[in-house]
Amino acid sequence: MTNNLLLRLRLQRGLTQEELSEHSGISVRTIRNLERGQIARPRRSSVDMLLAVLDPELRPDQRATLVDELGVPSALDPEWTQPTGRGAGVWRGSRPPRTSLIGREHEVEQLGGLVMANQVVVVTGPGGVGKSRVALAVAESVGHRLADGVAVVEMGRIPTEQHLDSESATELALKAVGGLLENGPGPAGGRLLLVLDNAEHLPRTTALLVERLLSDYRAVHLLITSRRPPKLHGAGIWELAPLSCEAAVELMVQRLRTSCPTLDLSEDLSQVAELCRQLDGLPRLVEFAAHRLRLVSLATLLSDSRAKNLLGSSDLAALPHQRTLEASVRWSLELLDERHQSFLSRLARRPEGIRLDADDEAAGAGAAGLSSTEVELLADLADSSLLQVDRGRQYQYRLLRHVQALLAAGPEPVLVGAGREEHRVPAG
Length: 428
Fold this sequence. Notes:
Blueprint: H1 2-13, H2 17-24, H3 28-35, H4 44-54, H5 60-69, E1 91-92, H6 105-117, E2 120-124, H7 131-143, E3 150-154, H8 166-181, E4 192-197, H9 203-216, E5 220-226, E6 236-239, H10 245-259, H11 269-278, H12 283-292, H13 298-303, H14 305-309, H15 325-334, H16 338-347, E7 354-357, H17 358-363, H18 372-383, E8 387-390, E9 394-399, H19 401-409, E10 415-416, E11 422-423
Parallel strand pairs: 1-3, 2-5, 2-6, 3-4, 4-5
Antiparallel strand pairs: 7-9, 8-9, 10-11
């Protein structure tokens, strides 16, 4: 039914599929597949965006009603309802937000299978890419299949290992876990999914905690989110990539409808796409920008790098380093030692990035003239999610745009080490 309506409206408007794609931000391929009825469960937000172009006289509430009548499902409808007692589906700890999850359906499905097949899985990626959001969506999707449900531990509220010795940090983590699992499964209990969220500042603590948990709870499954995966033998690692441009635009438009429904950017979707590219397709930054567009024009955000650096949210429930773009980058930088910080500041002055092929890496020096020590630094920064890696015969390492912009901004201090003096990044 959806395909017939979309095709009829497009023909009535006299639009080609290419023109509809340009106006709506939805790819030609998606439009074609929708019109042919080849997408059994279309994204609700995609249909809504298409209707906004095909029938612009419809109010947002009328579009929502029409989408409901067409039977288009909400994104990632949970497959379970939360019971009141112990058993499958029981949830302990923080819950995921009730906003729709866009562009991650494939990852959630694959990660769900990986989590059920492996006892330890780590979701890694740069700050703001949506690791926590995806991990909680995965927990929702598989929680009903586990006899003891799901427990979520917020590791981000435990002080860094730079401020605590490893034993004290481990005790705090065990206390947090124990509080959630009180009266929970014992060594012979049923299966449980335990999510250890935001653990990048506790690599040694996390490794010790996992070892202890696997010893005490033989049926536990662990899903860990971290900008840098801890060293865990046999753990599955899932590297979460930024959103595609199409999904990022869709997220921006949908969040704008919530934060500022009177702002219509349907005629400026190419500029919205450019802003999403400048924000590296990171969902948190896209959501920050959607919130900021209530107060600052799209043209300002596109042209003023300092305005982008100030993007953030007033949500006090979020961790401090997750409330602004700049705080997020600073948090990653503070977890580096001075050697890595210095090397990263040099990379910020190379917008083209660095290429290494297999022979170069084996020899310890690449076409960029790197020493073996610098190759190790490069690998460490990639492992910390501060460098994106395009893999092939030649490995391409590059900084995310917003990280490079902050590092190269000057003269303001950007690199700040915990307990150290501030370091100024040399101007590029």
